UniProtKB/TrEMBL annotation:
Full protein name: Iron ABC transporter ATP-binding protein
CDD domains according to UniProt: ABC_Iron-Siderophores_B12_Hemin
Coiled-coil segments: none
Pfam families named in the record: ABC_tran
Source domain of life: Bacteria
Native source organism of the sequence: Desulfosarcina alkanivorans
InterPro entries (alphabetical): AAA+_ATPase, ABC_transporter-like_ATP-bd, P-loop_NTPase
C-alpha cells in the first residue's frame, strides 16, 4: 500500500530560524492521523507545508507517491483539501456560495458550476448539518457553524486527503464530537485520509489511528495512541504533570491533568 503522504527528513525555517527538523513519517491511505504537541512545536507549520502553502528548506514531501512540488495546482486541489484555523470572518459570501467554491478545481475555463456541482455542494452542506443556514452570510455564523461551513467547502472538493488545523478549537463539547464524527464518517464511508492538528489529546486518542507527537519541530513519537500516549513522554513534552489511564468511554488512553499548586483550597496528593 503506497502512503497517502510521505515526509522524508523534512526541514522548514522562518527567516533562517529552523522550525521543523529532520521529520520523517508516512500517512497511510484512509487513515486518521493526528498531530499533537506543545505550543510552538511546529504543528501549523507542518500542516501548511503539507498543503503546499509554505516552502521547505530541506527534505521531501510526497503526496500519493509524487513529490509535492511536481503536482499541478488544480490537480492537487482535486486531491487535497486544507481547512485552516478559522477566526473572525467578514466574507460577503453566503454559506452556499462559500461551499460551492470547493468545486473551483473542477470547473472549466468559464468557471460556471453545473447541476452536478450544485448537488455536491448541497450534499456537503447537509452532511455538515448546515442546510438551514445555507442562505446566511458567512459573517453572521457562530464560530462552530463557520468551522463546519469551511469543512463543508473542503468536502465539496471531494478530496482524497483532507488536512485540518485544529478543527475543534473553540467549539463546545457537542460540536467537537460532531466534527470528529464527521471526519470519521468521511474516513469510513469515503476512504478519505484525514490529517489533523489537535490540542485535545483525549479527542485525538479517541479518533486517531496514529498520532505524531511533535516537540520542537521533531517527531518525539509516532504510532497508535496507546503507544504514543505515555505518561512520562507527555509530561516531558508538555512540561506539566499528568496521569494516563484507560478511558471509561472505550478502549483508548485518557489523559488527566494534575494541578501543581493548591486548587480550590485542596493540595494535590498525586
Ligand atoms: N510567519 C512566521 N514567521 C516567523 N516565525 C513563525 C511564523 N509562523 C510561526 N512561526 C514560529 O514557528 C514556530 C512554530 O509555530 P507553529 O505555529 O507551527 O506552532 P504550533 O505547534 O502550531 O503552535 P500552537 O500550538 O501555538 O498553535 C513558533 O516558534 C512560531 O513563533
Amino acid at each position: 500500500m503506497k502512503p497517502a503522504i510521505r515526509v522524508h527528513q523534512l526541514a522548514c525555517s522562518y527567516y533562517r530560524t529552523p522550525v521543523l527538523r529532520d521529520l520523517t513519517f508516512a500517512v497511510n491511505p484512509g487513515e486518521c492521523f493526528i498531530v499533537i504537541g506543545p505550543n510552538g512545536s511546529g504543528k501549523t507549520t507542518l500542516i501548511k507545508t503539507l498543503a503546499g502553502l509554505l516552502p521547505v528548506s530541506g527534505g521531501d514531501i510526497f503526496v500519493q507517491d509524487r513529490p509535492l512540488r511536481r503536482h499541478k495546482k488544480a490537480d492537487f486541489s482535486r486531491r487535497v483539501a486544507y481547512v485552516a484555523q478559522t477566526g473572525a470572518e467578514d466574507s460577503p459570501f453566503s454559506v452556499r456560495e462559500m461551499v460551492l467554491m470547493g468545486r473551483a478545481p473542477y470547473l472549466g475555463v468559464l468557471g460556471v458550476e453545473g447541476a452536478a456541482d450544485l448537488e455536491i455542494a448541497r450534499q456537503a452542506i447537509a452532511f455538515t448539518g448546515l442546510s438551514h443556514l445555507s442562505g446566511r452570510p458567512m459573517a453572521s455564523l457562530s464560530g462552530g457553524e463557520r468551522q463546519r461551513a469551511h469543512i463543508a467547502r473542503a468536502i465539496c472538493q471531494r478530496p482524497e486527503i483532507i488536512l485540518l488545523d485544529e478543527p475543534t478549537a473553540a467549539l463546545d463539547l457537542a460540536h467537537q464530537i460532531r466534527i470528529m464524527d464527521l471526519m470519521a464518517g468521511l474516513k469510513n464511508e469515503h476512504g478519505t485520509t484525514v490529517v489533523m492538528v489537535s490540542h485535545d489529546i483525549n479527542l485525538a486518542a479517541m479518533y486517531a489511528d496514529r498520532l505524531l507527537l511533535l516537540v520542537e519541530g521533531r517527531a518525539a513519537a509516532c504510532g497508535p495512541p496507546a503507544e504514543v500516549i505515555d505518561e512520562k513522554r507527555l509530561a516531558g513534552a508538555y512540561g506539566c504533570r499528568l496521569l494516563v489511564d484507560r478511558s471509561p468511554a472505550g478502549p483508548w488512553p485518557r489523559v488527566s491533568l494534575v494541578p501543581d499548586t493548591e486548587v480550590g483550597g485542596r493540595k494535590s496528593e498525586v
